[in-house]
Design a protein that fits this description.
Order of helices and strands: HHHHHHHHHHEEEEEHEEHHEEHEH
Largest sheet: 7 strands, antiparallel
Strand content: 5-15%
Structural class: alpha+beta
Mean pLDDT: 74
Number of strands: 10
Distance between the termini: 95 Å
Strand order of the largest sheet: 4-3-2-1-7-6-5
Radius of gyration: 45 Å
Low-confidence stretches: 1-5, 37-44, 187-194, 498-521, 526-550
């Protein structure tokens, strides 16, 4: 207790003793009143004095309480202020530590970008110095006749297509990174290779060079062809020996040529990962943040473009293989030659489905190739992947898919073997076209739904390209004969269908002009692009009418 508080307590005690004495005097006078009735004025005066004394005591007590409460509040306030100050210091310290750690991480990532680009650039130059330039010299001189007679300039172009362009791009990119690093160190006064200023901005360099990175696309697309050519040339002992000697060069770091050639393919994903890490380590108000976001978006777009180019190139290679099958069938079976390779034609999807036979109900495997304008079925002969035969080439412009539903069917005389397979209900669908109606059976409902979606999207996209496509589609109608779906012409069959008829077997059921009995007819559904449900078409007549062109 402070001296001030002790003094107040002493005064209070004296006041209390005085009040007790006055109360004792009051009690004595009250007793006297009972005995002798003294004067009224004397009693009133005594009572008034006692009340005043009591009021004085109450006022003093209130003052003491107020003073004590104020002192207590003051002490509590001081403690709160001290606690708040400690919390603020702790928060500020944590923020400083977090910011310091963030800047340190950012500096490390920038260092990794520059150092990895340097290593990548050295590997590219290794390929040029150890393999490309010596191989050109061999081809240009008489040394090529000593064992390299099969290697030509075209082979070099095939194996190392666009490689030197990518190396030149890396040279310029690394040059700009190093210049930015040196200028940043001069401004901040830092030295040493590991001293990266946190304020250094480099992602604007990514933004500048991003459009030029589209040159990766041609290299990516050619990579499989390059490896195939390299594998072929390695079958010659002299070339294989020369290649092995080059791969043992210390500059290759024990990497073979295919491992070195794949480095550009790995670089774009590496850029994306480094930029994402840099974004996470950079404060939102850092001047480099806007460039990071632009660079990341740009590099992702380039990567998507490159990947799409690779996918299309792989699709073209598969179409070339199918074209070879068609040419062989034309050569040995006498069927008309069909030119599958067209500038507009792209392979969208391929996979294996089973086809339910309408004759005996058996399942037959078919490899399905879905293009943007055609669907091709290929049969594997004798279970040998080498021996294949193109079965059907179906134009999408007059084809449609129909989800299979046994509940809406009646068992058709002569078709019991087909419709007794109730397990196909959720995993099968019809592909109806003038060429043939197929009942495809997938491994699962999910796979069936994906094929339905992809085929219907391909039809919708192809129709959206030109109004003429829709006009051609309107010349065909969908016919249901007790649940068996077929596409027949509204008028005479269009001429463009003739080039596909050759692939049909002679006398095969449900061909283009097979007669129908008591059919149900519908206009061929004209699907509106990108506005179709996941379950695209049903063989229910009510649902089919929803897809009639509005």
């Amino acid at each position: 207790m402070s001296l001030f508080e002790a003094s107040r307590w002493n005064k209070l005690e004296k006041t209390q003793r005085s009040i007790l004495k006055q109360l004792e005097e009051l009690q004595r006078r009250i007793d006297a009143i009972d005995n002798g009735f003294p004067k009224r004025e004397s009693i009133l005066n005594t009572t008034s004095n006692a009340n005043n004394t009591h009021n004085t005591l109450s006022h003093s007590q209130n003052q003491l309480n107020t003073s004590t409460h104020t002192d207590n509040n003051s002490t509590y306030t001081k403690k709160v202020i001290i606690a708040q100050s400690a919390v603020r210091r702790r928060i500020a310290r944590n923020q400083r530590e977090k910011l310091t750690k963030s800047y340190r991480t950012r500096s490390n990532i920038i260092a990794e970008i520059i150092s990895s680009e340097k290593t990548y650039n050295e590997s590219l130059h290794t390929v040029i110095e150890v393999f490309i330039l010596p191989l050109r010299q061999i081809v240009n001189t008489s040394l090529n006749q000593l064992g390299f007679g099969v290697v030509t300039h075209n082979d070099i172009l095939t194996i190392f297509s666009h490689f030197e362009t990518i190396c030149a791009l890396s040279d310029q990119f690394l040059l700009h990174l190093n210049k930015r690093l040196e200028s940043g160190k001069k401004i901040t006064g830092l030295g040493g290779e590991s001293s990266i200023p946190p304020s250094l901005t480099i992602t604007d360099i990514f933004v500048h060079f991003g459009p030029f990175m589209k040159s990766f696309k041609q290299f990516y697309e050619n990579y499989d062809t390059a490896i195939a050519k390299l594998t072929f040339l390695k079958s010659y002992p002299a070339f294989a020996q020369w290649l092995h000697k080059g791969e043992r060069d210390p500059r290759t770091h024990l990497l073979d040529l295919p491992s070195l050639l794949i480095l550009p393919i790995q670089r774009l994903p590496r850029y994306i990962l480094l930029l994402q890490a840099l974004q996470e380590a950079t404060p939102s108000d850092h001047p480099d943040m806007i460039h990071i976001m632009k660079a990341l978006s740009l590099i992702k777009d380039v990567a998507n473009l490159v990947n799409e180019g690779v996918r299309q190139n792989q699709g073209r290679q598969k179409l070339i293989e199918i074209q070879t099958l068609i040419d062989n069938q034309s050569l040995f079976l006498g069927t008309p030659r069909f030119n599958l390779i067209q500038p507009h034609r792209l392979l969208l999807k391929d996979g294996v489905l089973s086809k339910r036979s309408f004759t005996d109900g058996s399942l037959q495997k078919r490899h399905i190739y879905l293009c943007n304008d055609l669907l091709i079925t290929v049969t594997v002969l004798f279970g040998n992947q080498v021996l294949q035969k193109v079965d059907k080439i179906i134009p999408l412009i007059n084809a449609t898919v129909i989800d299979n539903d046994y509940d809406d069917k009646k068992i058709i005389p002569g078709k019991e073997k087909v419709y007794q397979h109730r397990e196909d209900k959720d995993v099968s669908f019809f592909l109806a076209s003038p060429i043939k109606t197929h009942l495809f059976v997938a491994e699962s409902k999910r796979e069936k739904d994906m094929w339905l979606r992809d085929i219907q999207n391909a039809i919708a996209d192809w129709l959206a390209i030109s109004p003429a496509h829709i006009e051609k589609r309107e010349k065909w109608q969908l016919i249901s004969d007790d649940g068996v779906w077929k596409v027949t012409p509204n008028t005479n069959a269009p001429e463009e269908i003739d080039e596909f008829v050759y692939i049909n077997k002679v006398g095969e059921s449900n061909g283009v002009y097979e007669p129908m009995t008591t059919p149900s007819q519908h206009n061929l559904p004209s699907i509106r692009p990108k506005s179709i449900p996941s379950i695209l078409v049903s063989n229910s007549l009510k649902l089919l009418q929803m897809f009639i062109k509005v």
